[in-house]
Amino acid sequence: MSTKHKVGWAVVSVLVLIYALFPVASILMTSFKAPADLSSGKFLPTQWVGENYSALFVGSARDLFLPSLRNSIGICLIATFIAVVLATLCAYAIARLDFPGKKLILTVALAVSMFPVVSIVTPLFNLWRQIGLYDTWPGLIIPYLSLTLPISIWTLTAFFQQIPWDLERAAQVDGATTWQAFTKVIVPLALPGVFTTAIIAFFIAWNDFVYGIGLTSTEAARPVPAALAFFTGASQFEDPAGAISAAAIIVTIPVVILVLLFQRQIVSGLTQGAVKG
Amino acid sequence: MASITLNHLVKKYGDGFPAVNDVSIDIADGEFLILVGPSGCGKSTLLRMIVGLEDITSGDLLINGERVNEKEPRERNLSMVFQNYALYPHLTVYENIAFPLRLSKGKFSDEEIDRKVRHASSTLDLDEHLERKPANLSGGQRQRVAMGRAIVRDADAFLFDEPLSNLDAKLRGQMRTEIAQLQRRMGITSVYVTHDQTEAMTLGDRVAVLKKGILQQIASPRELYEQPANLFVAGFIGSPSMNFLPAHVRGDVFETPLGDFPVPQQAAGKLPGDDRIVLLGLRPEHFEDAKFVDEAKVSRGTTFDAEFTHTEWMGNEQYGYINYQQDGNVKAKLDELAQDLDGDEMHPQIVVSLDATSRIRGGTQGRIWIDTRRMHVFDPETGQNLTRDAEAGAELTREATEERKAEIDRARQQLAAAG
Ligand SMILES: Nc1ncnc2c1ncn2[C@@H]1O[C@H](COP(=O)(O)OP(=O)(O)O)[C@@H](O)[C@H]1O
Ligand SMILES: [Mg+2]
Fold this sequence. Notes:
CATH superfamily of one domain in chain A: MetI-like
Strand content of chain A: under 5%
Structural class of chain B: alpha+beta
Number of strands of chain A: 0
Oligomer: heterodimer
Radius of gyration of chain A: 23 Å
Number of domains of chain B: 2
Bound molecules: adenosine-5'-diphosphate, magnesium ion
Shape of chain B: elongated
CATH class of one domain in chain A: Mainly Alpha
CATH architecture of the largest domain in chain B: 3-Layer(aba) Sandwich
Strand order of the largest sheet of chain B: 6-7-8-3-9-10
Strand content of chain B: 25-35%
Helix content of chain B: 25-40%
């Protein structure tokens, strides 16, 4: 790349970054503003206060926020784990085996992921109340699976299809059992794909609002996005925006940590060099 | 060390099409067998059936006389080099080569593994690259790593699936020599799949020619070249390929678009009745510019005049091209043959080899001599070679086998003397 190109790309990248990060910065600033400061119309707080954060962990919003944080983390981790395990097995079968109904599974998965969430939440609400899943963790994990499984199956299938089948065959000829070929060759190569999928699945579950608000009623299962809607100011006339912003910042942190943690695993192109080229 | 026997092997895929159809071959211990044929003819399928990656629909596969149809690949103790190398991208070159040894748990100590890997890597010039990952290697180096993984353990036989087809021409020539020498030194039974003429002719003791899953002929390269069993083998082996000239049988002359040729002695009595059409198989080197033919030789062939469309001078030789009017009766047959051979259609054109100093040029008339004694005559309907001398062919293969034995013995003696 010429210098001119590099400068061009740098400028574009900076613009995109500003566009993407400005709202985050704005929320971050708001989270440090005192209630009286909220309508100041300024970007920076006139006075930096930590009371929004303390409200979340020790103050008025504590009973609303902490249980919901626990619910969100627990429910999303479980849903992600189940989705990834099921999707890995399913995708491996789809990529490697020839069986009738293969296309059907993929099509149905796609159809499920297209289905509008709002149209299903009301029937689910009634059903869950009757069978006792309303306001429970499984009551959210199950619908979250319907969100995370299809995309996990699709991304993992694409990933497995990228791994040359000959690698597995070569391992078998080299003396491996089917299971050894899977664990010693396929799993190490598929790991980046599994991590990427896990993170995508986790985000989808983490960001859900409609199921969260529709299928829960107490802190027994209510996730953070739904809980935010129940935040109130100290008085009826006080704007809860400060506390909501602080909560939004807090829930972003696990996401950032996840991405940083698995950044190395997400690098694609590990399969390079397996075959000619 | 192993002999491999294929006994009426058939492979039908899901759609019922037989990709390999009733193939029987006896591969002797230490033999280098080549499977050759146009793409899609079932070479890889046959190889994968031998190694155990593909189920056998019917027939028997024997290794050292023992039926192994139902055995898993890992129980057959064969090693294979894949067309795309199939190196494990997450492992270093060292670990790639050590992989088969590490799988046979408890059989080798770490020191033994290290010794074997280093021996293989020095054999293949990979010593400097042991700690690198396959992604950082050149095509030739990857190819060698794949070879290393195959030779590191004491497999009963080597199977190669077009191992050189991804290399450039120069490297291919070099690796071809290395493979030939390696196999000769180790004396291990090998089956080598290729669609490359040169590899087929130079590497193998015997070459098996496949067409649409059916074995056409299996013989030494020389027998295939000089005594082909049918049109397909004749057209497939040799480059530039054999010319097929339609001819009507009129008593003891062939009436061809290039003129009348007397029926040569080897065809006498083997031809169909009068007026029937046959195909004359003439290799480019059966022709010569008449000016360059010895007096003594002229009488053994026929001369005729032809107009050349163009010539190609290659330095050490020269090719001339002659167009002729295609006979409608054989056009369909020849086009079908061309399709089978990977081409599109057969041009009504004769390629002749001329002396490099010949002055014949495109657009001029030239006087050409044909060595009719070496001509083959094919039945256009069945494709059979009517003039094939099975006796002479078998003799060629016998000679090749003996030469080869002597060669292996010499190599082993040298090895023993050196070691
Ligand atoms: N897994 C498969 N399923 C169905 N047909 C196949 C499969 N593999 C190969 N074939 C068919 O079998 C024939 C032989 O294929 P292959 O052995 O790969 O040929 P070659 O190696 O000689 O090019 C081809 O017609 C191919 O389409
Ligand atoms: Mg092939």
